[in-house]
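Q: Sequence in, structure out?
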Amino acid sequence: MPAVASRHLRLDTLIRLRWLAISGQSLAVAGVHFGLGFTLPFGWCFAVIAVSAWLNIALRIRFPLSHRLREGAATALLAFDIVQLAALLYLTGGLQNPFSILFLAPVMISATALPPQRTLLLGMLVVGFATALTTLHLPLPWAGEPRPVLPPAYQLGNWTALVLGLAFTGAYARRVAKEARDLSDALTATELVLAREQHLSQLDGLAAAAAHELGTPLATIALVARELSRLAPAEGEMAEDIALLREQVERCRGILGKLNSLQDDDGSPLDQLSLRLLIEEAAGPQRPFGVPFEIVMQGEKPEPICRRNPGMIYGLGNIVDNAVDFAGTSVTIAASWDEAHVTLSIADDGPGFPAEVLMRAGEPYLSHSPGEGRAGGGLGLGLFIAKTLLERSGAMLEFSNRPSPATGAVIRISWLRAVFEADSREAGAYQALS
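A: Exactly. Output:
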């Protein structure tokens, strides 16, 4: 999947973090040398720090504040930070220096913004330098003689702790950043779907408003045409033109009358769907995929009827699609109703929900590796949007597995019958009051 430009690291972020590191390194070196009186290669240390400062200045001059780094450039800059810190640690005691823990910072930054391969590459670079610094380094700055020599077992412990810290913080930072990105993507996509739905639902109001505004000038044109008809000769080209004008005025009046009645019109028969027709329309596109459907209807007549709702149809269709993906041999759609409730149960005979997925079903987490069971591509952004749209129609959703020894997942969708049978405006008002 190509990287999204808006997710690339901002150069300004790395520059600010490097200035913070430069300030901390300078303060630490100066404090150890002048404050504590420890002997260390002061000039070389500040030369290494100065290289980092020069790079920051050059980047600030060359690029604007809003510049976003591509993956390769961001990896190179983070690798430079690792190399610079390794050089500074080489001059100040190697892995014995407690500031060696700062090796974690570039890897953590990479884990939040770069692909795993880049983070792994930077992690291996850190492990390589950490391994070398266990033996190759100048003495640890210390007061007096003899300088302390840490035993090999302690240095091995430091190395192990650093490697484990790299693995843990990298994995944790990546997981947190991924969940934040997934949630942002899901909310953005849902807002787009809902904005489209709201836009469509407002078209009838806009049409009625346009009809109302155009009514006055059209009435004026009709009045003028009538006066011209009275004053013009009874025959001739002018009479024909005036007659044509009056016909077109009446035609416009008819069109505007239809537009003006959109909000109050009960709609055509196609605007009404019985519960079975709703199921057929949502599940119909999945029939060609070879998994048979069984539709079970249970309830006393009359059957519930709802207004055609694209969001409801899309949501049900997505859930049926998910059931077809994981079904072994069949999908069962059971509908039941009484005077108070309307309920749909969509069940398959597949592997069912894993326990960890069942606890989070309907949450907006995305998967980029389809085909890994229900924790993979089948349950993610699509189900989140379907759940959101169905809940907007007044539905409540429950996720479960079929009781043992049967296998498969069950999604139960229920409405109050008054909400199910109300039109979209009435349902919205009902939800607002509930």
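The first strand starts at residue 272 and ends at 274.
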